Each structure stands twice: as structure tokens, then as C-alpha cells.
Design the sequence.
């Protein structure tokens, strides 16, 4: 029977870090997108108010 | 901001599926390597992320040239997206390589030519964002960024070729390895399937992330324009 060196701990750590990094990056895109959309809404309402005043 | 295109939603779903399949192939389908054991399975993601990382840096250099010629901001958005997504993927490459090296080379890190050029490449692109952060004028920022991406892009082919040109302990998957290479292995047919699928999967995921990042830049530009209009 073949025996392999037990390096499964390293493998698990590797996959966890790979998925965590991709997950954090995707979450950061989501957060930045959400913040920019809220900024855009605020600025658009400000612009509308300014144009009404003029 | 335009609503999310259907093609992008489809690409999101395809990306999740191919990532799932690539993980299955790496963890279950591919046989366990005799000498290194399970840690060798990180190799499929290590090479997959390195592939998209280096291709992205080259794409950033090409879009830098396109920006300098046309002065069209769409190339700047493309360049930023390519650099950001590639830097993230290349970070995974370096970490996975280090994790693999611990049982294979008995060290987390060594200043081998490949590891050194990879670390320098990553640092070059982290500095790219620091440079952009320091410039307020959008045109100047895009111009400086383009020149930097163009020069930084040279590090990608250097990192790719270094294990083929210099004496190094880093194994070579395709091509002839240096005599000092440690941790290399012959791929079986199932390993090759997992390997090539991982390359395909990360290419799809890279395109998907790039698309999202470009949309984010467009939104950012719109917000900056509105800020200027409102403050006037």
C-alpha cells in the first residue's frame, strides 16, 4: 500500500487563504460600489436642488 | 450608472461554476502526488492565479500604451482594473507558493530568482496604487499611471522567464527545469486535466472580476464629475 507524507494541513491552509483573498476582494468591490452609488444619489439630489435655485 | 448587463450576470454564474469544478478537480479528481502528498494540490491554483496575474500585468502595460496614444480614459479604467485584479491574484500565487515551499523545500521563503522577481513584481504594483493615490488631477494620474504600468509590465515576462534562464530551485511545469530545481514532478493525465481546467477557470474568473472593476471605475468617474459640477 502506498503511503503519502501528511501535508494536508498545508493544503487546507492554502485553499482557505486563496478563497478568503478572493472573497475579501469581491466584498471590497461590492462595498465600494454601494458607497459610490449612495454618493451618486446624494450628488444628483444636490445638483437638482442647485439647478432649481438658479 | 447603467444596470448590470445580463451577460455579466451569466459570467458571474459561470465563474462560480468553473471555480467549483476547478476546486473539485484539484482536491478530489487529481491523484495525490507521491513525494509531496496533498500539498501538491495547491499547485493547480498556484499556477492558475500566476497565469492571470502575469497576463493582467501585460494587459495593463498594453492599455497604458493605448492610453498614451489615444488619451481615452477607457484605457485608464481598463489598466487600473487589470492591475488591481492581477495584484490580488498574484498575491494568492505568492502565498500558495510559500505554503507549498514549507514541506517541499523545508522553508517558507528563499531568495531564489523566481521568488525574488515575483515579490518585486507584486511590490511594483502595490506602489502603482500609491502613486495614483498621490495625484489629484485625473489626466495627470492617468498619464503617470500609464507610463508606470508600461515600465512595470516588463517585470511580468522577466518573472515568467527567470526560471528558464537562471539557475533556480523553482520547478518548471512546461519546458526544461534547471538542474537545481527541487519539488518538480511528472504530471499524470488526470493532473493535466486539473491543471488546464484551473488555467481556464481562472481566466474566466479574471475576465469577470475585470468587468466588475471597470464598471466600478466608470461609476467613480461619474461621481468625481458630479462633485466638480456641484462644487462649482
Sequence:
Amino acid at each position: 500500500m502506498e503511503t503519502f507524507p501528511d501535508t494536508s494541513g498545508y493544503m487546507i491552509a492554502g485553499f482557505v487563504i486563496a478563497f478568503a483573498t478572493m472573497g475579501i476582494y469581491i466584498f471590497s468591490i461590492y462595498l465600494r460600489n454601494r458607497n459610490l452609488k449612495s454618493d451618486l444619489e446624494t450628488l444628483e439630489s444636490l445638483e437638482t436642488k442647485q439647478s432649481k435655485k438658479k | 450608472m447603467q444596470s448590470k448587463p445580463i451577460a455579466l450576470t451569466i459570467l458571474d454564474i459561470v465563474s462560480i461554476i468553473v471555480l467549483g469544478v476547478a476546486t473539485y478537480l484539484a482536491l478530489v479528481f487529481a491523484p495525490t502526488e507521491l513525494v509531496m502528498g496533498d500539498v501538491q494540490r495547491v499547485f493547480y491554483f498556484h499556477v492558475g492565479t500566476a497565469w492571470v496575474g502575469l497576463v493582467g500585468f501585460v494587459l495593463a502595460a498594453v492599455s497604458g500604451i493605448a492610453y498614451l496614444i489615444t488619451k481615452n480614459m477607457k484605457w485608464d479604467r481598463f489598466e487600473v482594473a487589470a492591475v488591481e485584479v492581477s495584484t490580488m491574484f498574484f498575491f494568492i500565487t505568492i502565498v500558495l507558493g510559500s505554503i507549498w515551499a514549507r514541506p517541499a523545500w523545508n522553508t517558507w521563503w528563499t531568495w531564489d530568482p523566481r521568488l525574488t522577481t515575483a515579490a518585486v513584481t507584486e511590490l511594483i504594483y502595490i506602489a502603482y496604487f500609491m502613486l495614483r493615490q498621490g495625484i489629484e488631477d485625473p489626466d495627470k494620474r492617468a498619464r503617470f499611471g500609464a507610463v508606470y504600468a508600461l515600465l512595470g509590465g516588463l517585470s511580468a515576462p522577466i518573472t515568467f522567464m527567470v526560471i528558464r534562464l537562471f539557475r533556480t530551485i523553482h520547478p518548471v511545469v512546461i519546458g526544461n527545469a534547471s538542474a537545481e530545481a527541487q519539488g518538480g514532478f511528472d504530471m499524470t493525465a488526470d493532473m493535466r486535466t486539473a491543471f488546464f481546467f484551473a488555467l481556464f477557470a481562472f481566466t474566466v474568473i479574471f475576465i469577470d472580476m475585470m468587468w466588475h472593476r471597470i464598471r466600478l471605475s466608470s461609476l467613480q468617474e461619474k461621481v468625481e464629475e458630479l462633485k466638480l459640477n456641484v462644487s462649482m
Notes: Chain B has seven helices and no strands. Chain B has a mean pLDDT of 92.
